[in-house]
Design goal:
Strand content of chain A: 15-25%
Distance between the termini of chain B: 67 Å
Oligomer: heterodimer
Strand order of the largest sheet of chain B: 4-6-7-9-8
Structural class of chain A: alpha/beta
Largest interface: A-B, 29 and 27 residues
Largest sheet of chain B: 5 strands, mixed
Largest sheet of chain A: 5 strands, parallel
Distance between the termini of chain A: 20 Å
Number of strands of chain B: 9
Chain lengths: 133, 293
C-alpha cells in the first residue's frame, strides 16, 4: 500500500453503535471508511468504483448475512481478491472459517488487534501465497 | 402376510402412563394353536417391558431435544452478550486512543460516555432476560401488582424504543384512550409490551407499525400490528416456546425468548397472548389483560 492515499475500508456491520465506533477508530487511524448496514448494501458498495482495499465483515445481519456476502464476493473474479476480515460475536463461526476463506476476529476484540490485523491484510508478507488464513 | 404363513396371532396393549400407548402383536407360525392364560400373561409381560423401553427412548429423545435447545440458547446468549460488549470495548479503547493524543472536549466525553452507558444498559437488560427465563422455568415468576395507567405505560414503552424505531425506519402510530386504569405488575407488563413492539420493528421491514389499546369485555386489549415478514401458519404455535424463533437466526439477533416471556407475563396476570399472521404480509399480536371490576 503506497502512502500516497489513505487505504479504503468497507465496514459491513448492522449494529449501529459498532459501525459508528469502527468509523471513528478507523478514521483516526488514517483510513477512509465506508459503512454498509447489511450484506446487500455491502455488496453494492463493494461493486462501486473505486473498490475498497479491505473489507471488515460482520456475519449475522438482516437481508443478507456475512456468509452470503462472502460467497457473492468470492464468485466475482474482480472482487474475490479484496482482503476481508470477519468480525463476529458467533463463537461457532470458527467452524465455518474454511467456507468464509477469511481470517476471523472475535467480538469483543481489542482495538490494537484489529488495527494490526488490518495492516497485515493491506501489506501482504513477502511472497507468502495462501498465507491469508 | 400370507408369505409369513403364520398360524395364529395375539395382540396385547402396550401400557403407557395415560392408558394404552400402543399395541404389541405376536405371530405364531405353528397352526392350530390355542393361546392359554399363561401365553397371554407372557405376552403382557413382554408388552410391559417393551413399553418401558419405548418410554425410556422417548424420555431420552425429549432430554436430548431439551439439551440441544439449551445449547442453542447458550450460543445465542453468548452472541447477544458479546455484541454490546464489543461496542463498549471499541468505544472505551477508541476514547483512550484519542485521549492520549489530544485533550478531549467535555462534549466529546459526554457523547462517548452516553453511548457506553446505553450499551451497559443493553447488557444489563440481556442478563435480566436470561435470568427471567430461568425464573419462569423454575415457576417463580412472582407479580408485584399495583394500580397503574396502562395507556401511559404503553406510550412509555413505545417511547423507550425510539432508538430501535429509528434504526428500523418504521413509523409507529399509537391509538389509546387518555387513561386506562389497571392493577398489574407494571415492570413485567411494560416488558411484555416492549417485547411486542420491538418484534414489530424488528420483523416489520421498515413498514408502519400500529399499536392499539382498548377496554373490551372486562379486558384491556393491546394489539400490535406490523406489515413485515409475517409468520408461516406452521410456525405460529412454536414462536411462543422458549428459545425458538421462526425467522432465521443467521439474519436476526435476539435470544428467542421475547414472546415466551410476554406470554408467561400475560398468563401470570390471568390474561393471554395470541397471534394472527400471514407469511409475507405481517403479524398482529393481541395481549389481553383482565381489568379490575
Amino acid at each position: 500500500m503506497s502512502d500516497a492515499r489513505r487505504a479504503r475500508v468497507l465496514v459491513v456491520e448492522d449494529d449501529a453503535e459498532i459501525a459508528a465506533g469502527l468509523d471513528e477508530l478507523l478514521g483516526l487511524s488514517g483510513y477512509d471508511v465506508t459503512i454498509a448496514r447489511d450484506g446487500a448494501d455491502g455488496l453494492a458498495r463493494l461493486r462501486a468504483e473505486p473498490p475498497p482495499d479491505v473489507v471488515l465483515l460482520d456475519l449475522m445481519m438482516p437481508r443478507m448475512d456475512g456468509y452470503s456476502f462472502r460467497e457473492a464476493q468470492l464468485a466475482d473474479p474482480r472482487l474475490a481478491a479484496i482482503p476481508t476480515l470477519v468480525l463476529t460475536a458467533d463463537r461457532t463461526a470458527q467452524a465455518h472459517a474454511a467456507r468464509l476463506a477469511a481470517p476471523l476476529l472475535s467480538k469483543p476484540f481489542a482495538v490494537a488487534d484489529l488495527l494490526s490485523a488490518l495492516e497485515s491484510l493491506l501489506r501482504p508478507g513477502p511472497a507468502e501465497p495462501g498465507e491469508n488464513e | 402376510m400370507d408369505e409369513l404363513a403364520f398360524g395364529s396371532m395375539m395382540t396385547v396393549p402396550l401400557p403407557g402412563r395415560d392408558g394404552a400407548a400402543g399395541a404389541l402383536t405376536m405371530f405364531f407360525n405353528r397352526g392350530g394353536r390355542t393361546h392359554t392364560r399363561d401365553d397371554v400373561l407372557l405376552g403382557m409381560e413382554i408388552a410391559s417391558r417393551a413399553a418401558v423401553a419405548v418410554q425410556n427412548a422417548r424420555l431420552l429423545r425429549d432430554l436430548r431435544d431439551a439439551v440441544r435447545l439449551r445449547d442453542e440458547f447458550l450460543a445465542m446468549a453468548s452472541h447477544e452478550l458479546r455484541t454490546p460488549l464489543a461496542a463498549v470495548r471499541l468505544n472505551v479503547e477508541t476514547l483512550l486512543l484519542r485521549a492520549r493524543r489530544e485533550p478531549l472536549s467535555r462534549e466529546t466525553l459526554v457523547t462517548k460516555l452516553e453511548g457506553t452507558g446505553r450499551q451497559v444498559t443493553r447488557l444489563a437488560e440481556l442478563v435480566d432476560r436470561i435470568l427471567d427465563v430461568s425464573r419462569i422455568e423454575a415457576g417463580v415468576l412472582t407479580l408485584e401488582r399495583r394500580d397503574c395507567d396502562l395507556a401511559d405505560e404503553l406510550r412509555g414503552a413505545v417511547a423507550e424504543l425510539e432508538p430501535e424505531r429509528a434504526q428500523a425506519g418504521s413509523r409507529i402510530s399509537v391509538e389509546a384512550p387518555a387513561t386506562l386504569l389497571a392493577h398489574l405488575d407494571v415492570t413485567r407488563v411494560r416488558q411484555a409490551l416492549r417485547n411486542l413492539v420491538h418484534n414489530a420493528l424488528k420483523y416489520g421491514e421498515g413498514r408502519p407499525v400500529s399499536v392499539n389499546l382498548a377496554a373490551r369485555d372486562g379486558n384491556a386489549e393491546v394489539r400490535v400490528a406490523d406489515q413485515g415478514i409475517g409468520i408461516a401458519a406452521e410456525d405460529q404455535a412454536r414462536i411462543f416456546e422458549r428459545f425458538t424463533r421462526a425467522a432465521g437466526a443467521r439474519h436476526y439477533q435476539g435470544l428467542g425468548v421475547g414472546l415466551f416471556i410476554a406470554r408467561e407475563v400475560a398468563r401470570a396476570h390471568g390474561g393471554a397472548l395470541s397471534v394472527d399472521s400471514v407469511a409475507g404480509a405481517g403479524s398482529t399480536f393481541t395481549l389481553e389483560l383482565p381489568l379490575p371490576r
